[in-house]
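pinging the channel bc i need a second pair of eyes. not urgent but kinda urgent?? the chain im working w is below, pasted from the shared doc
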Amino acid sequence: MQKPEKTKKSTLARFFKIPHVFVLLFIIVLAAVVMTYVIPAGEFDRAEDPETGRVLVQEGTYQTVEADPIGLFEIPGLFITGLNEAADIILFIFVVGGAFQIITATGVFDAVIRKVTALLGNREILIIPIFLTLFSIGGFTIGMTVEGMALVPLAIALARSLGYDAITGLSMVLLGVYSGFIAGLMNPFNVGVAQGIAGLPIYSGMWLRAIVLVVLLVAASIFLIRYAGRVKRDPSKSVVADMEKAHQPDGLLKQSSKFQLHQYFVMLTIVGGLGVLVWGVVEHEWYINDIAALFLAMGVVAGLCAKMGPSRIAEEFVNGAKAFTLGALIVGIARAIPVALENGLIIDTVIHGLASVITNLPGSIQVVGMYTVQTIINFFINSGSGQAAATMPLIVPLGDLLGITRQTGVLAFQLGDGFTNLIFPTGTTLMAYLAAAGVPYEKWLKFIWPLILIWFVIGAAFVIFADIIQYQ
């Protein structure tokens, strides 16, 4: 008598199951295409700022233009364009994946994990806030985001050795980097650009952003420590429990923590390479291609230090790159979403409409409306500097009209731009991190949404506080 009920539940489970990430992204792209038929086309005039060279939106110049909706037969081309536009990040993923496989094959990560575990003893849980804090430094100083992806394999290996899972290791890097990036004490890509457009002294108002950083790190640490503790007590509680079954303990911790001679040379290569990375990013504004070349060189040198032959190095590189194929493709396919909105000429209409909404809100919640609007726009324009160039020329005069200080407007922008970078599938950096970790997007979504909700509320509290004190 119970069989029909079981069959019914099974059917419902299949019906409500989250589809493959390619299917999910295709649905979103299709929705974006439909929007090009529903939302009126429009454009702002844009002009180059002679001081910065950035192309900025001109406030008050929005006008409707002739609609140019995406045709049915143009949809496949959106994906190809997305893959082309994300080609540098896709290449970065392949190169870093291959390079780290070479380094992993030297055994140095295993040795480091054994050493760290031995040193921590019963205080192993401290590795979570330590990693979060360390990675936040790169985020709030040089605006590091995608650069930290190269260290995800190491963080995951460390987390697993301590009884946690891949999500924990990934989060120690990703949440740390974005805590710093969002707080943006000296971040040139969000706060620096926004303050420049708003006519504020560069990096002014840092005291409040420092408090934001501390609060975000504390919230992330508590959230991740609670999750990691549940996973260690009961591995079935892991969001990626099925994935973790392929990584059962192999007696690693029982081995000697003593380094072999070649591993010292590999470690020297890694540390030296990371030093060069910081120098290149800070002094010479290195980005994707330069960093990919550096990691390729690090991988080859590390292989030679471990006495690998050229053929073995090539084989390990191919194996590493192969493991990231799915994730690399996801990055390109996700890029098709903003491509559809741009080609359909509706992004400016969305921005104009959302800005108009703010002016019609009650005065007491207008600053929250400004913050929320920036959050929504982040789905369509995921680049921090790109969003600043598109929205700050509108937010600045709007804030002046409503009595909201320009510093508060910048804060609303940076927080609105930041939190949802960790959940929106239009974010190529998020997709790149998930690719590096081998974590499916739907699994990450299930894990991260409570923290994003907590962070969003924290952000709202800060912009309200900033408005009350007339933050300068």
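so The beta strands are 42-43, 46-48, 55-57, 63-64. and The radius of gyration is 23 Å. — does that match what u expected or am i reading it wrong
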